From TrEMBL:
Pfam families: Autoind_bind, GerE. GO terms for biological process: regulation of DNA-templated transcription. Keywords: DNA-binding, Transcription, Transcription regulation. This is DNA-binding transcriptional regulator, CsgD family. Residues 167-232 form the HTH luxR-type domain. PROSITE patterns: HTH_LUXR_2. The keyword Transcription regulation applies. Gene3D superfamilies: Transcription factor LuxR-like, autoinducer-binding domain (3.30.450.80), Winged helix-like DNA-binding domain superfamily/Winged helix DNA-binding domain (1.10.10.10). One of its GO terms (molecular function) is DNA binding. InterPro entries: Sig_transdc_resp-reg_C-effctor, TF_LuxR_autoind-bd_dom, TF_LuxR_autoind-bd_dom_sf, Tscrpt_reg_LuxR_C, WH-like_DNA-bd_sf.
Amino acid sequence: MARKLDDMLERLGKTTSLCDLQKTVFDLRDAYEVEHLVYHSVKSSGAQWAALTYAPEWVDTYVAENFQTIDPVVLSCFRGFRPIDWKTLDWSGRPARTLLGEGLANGLGNQGVSLPIRGPSGQFALFTVNHKTGDDSWGRFIRQNMHDLLLAAHYINERALALEGEGHVPHQSLSPRETDALTLLAAGRSRAQAAERLKISEHTLRVYIESARFKLGALNTTHAVASALSRGLIGL
């Protein structure tokens, strides 16, 4: 795992307030040298909290114009689970074009990727990375950093919920093999590499991963790794 992600995870683990978490989001933006980074959480009760680097003027405009109701990024992420590259969305309608034009005028970059996160009790969050660059450069950035960004997104969500007193209920203990499997994946190993290191088949590895995911209440493998890291169940 990249040193900058190690540093970020360590810093996140030391946050004791939402103010600290907000500062960490700015630090993460600077570490990855991108224009903007956003974490926005909405609970089933409607309560919201965000840590973001957008200009306050743009945030005020977005809220005042109720842009979330027509934002292709929000609508697409709310319907699915996979990361959404903004360039793959339909911006042809007038409301979407207006939103995009005003965003660019207020300092947004032309590239973006947003990761939907679903937490306990109907909580929904978005983690967004935004930048000004060409398509080729952006493609390289995403290929090189998507694993880090997925882990960061879920880790920040876990930390925000914990600081608000709404983290997951106590979990069952992970077995030694489940711990080993998640540790290797967190270190950037592929499933094939992890299975080879543990001297087991990929099928057996999958059983351990799925068992750990169930115990942690995670939606997917990346979420399980982030949850295990945030709770100190695995280390790097």
